């Protein structure tokens, strides 16, 4: 049996080669930046959201409480009315044509098989890509985000797409 004073010395002797082997010659490095943290916008169950544009070109959801019961159409109508006072004060804008109240109320969103078709009161062929994403994400805020969305304007229907709010 090893005397009590020798145990720490014996343990250190056994541990030293193990610690030397684990170093592997890799030098420590500092923190490596890899971009901004992921952002996930989660709509409240049954709550309409209109996606507006931040000053740096990202999409940000804004609740549309007056359209909570209107489903996807309510989100689109809220978006077509443009940013309200709270959104403007937060620096949010839009790349979607802001239409009058009557025209906004004429927007329609219907589910057709596995797609959501949004009928808009303006031409969509020349729609800004960020505006396209605003419309798609707003329409999907109250339904399954796996639906594809077809934007149909007064001129044409755009190919189906899904919400990509993160880019």
What would you note in describing this structure?
With 167 residues, the protein is α+β, with helices and mostly antiparallel strands. Helices cover 30% and strands 15% of the residues. It has five helices and five strands. The strands form two sheets. Strands 3-4-5 form a three-stranded mixed β-sheet. Strands 1-2 form a two-stranded antiparallel sheet. Strand 1 (49-53) and strand 2 form a beta hairpin. 28% of the residues are buried.
What would the keywords be for this entry?
single chain, about 170 residues, alpha+beta, two-stranded antiparallel sheet, 5 helices
Query: What is the H/E order?
Result: HEEHHHEEHE
Tell me the distance between the termini: 67 Å
Structural class: alpha+beta
Number of DSSP strand runs: 5
The 3D shape can be described as globular
Q: Give the strand order, joined by hyphens, for the main sheet.
A: 3-4-5
Radius of gyration: 27 Å
> Oligomer, anyone?
single chain
Unreliably modeled segments: 17-22, 34-45
Sheet with the most strands, sense and barrel status = 3 strands, mixed
* Arithmetic mean pLDDT: 77
> Beta fraction of the residues?
5-15%
- Helical residue percent? 25-40%
Number of helices: 5
Keywords: Signal
Protein name: Lipoprotein
